[in-house]
Amino acid sequence: MDRLSRPASLPSRIAQTLRDDIAAGRFAAGGRLPAESALAETFDVSRPIVREAIALLKADGVLVTRKGSGAYVSDTPGGQVWRVASQPDGGPTLAQLFELRRVVETTCAEMAAQRRTDADLDAIRAALTAMQAHAADFPSAAAADIAFHHAIAQAAHNPCFTGLTDFVSQQLLVARQFAWENSARLDAQHGTPRAADAEHAALVDAIAAGDQIAARAAAGAHLSAAAARMGLA
Question: Which of 88, 91, 130, 223 has a C-alpha 20 to 30 A away from that of 152?
Answer without folding.
Answer: 91
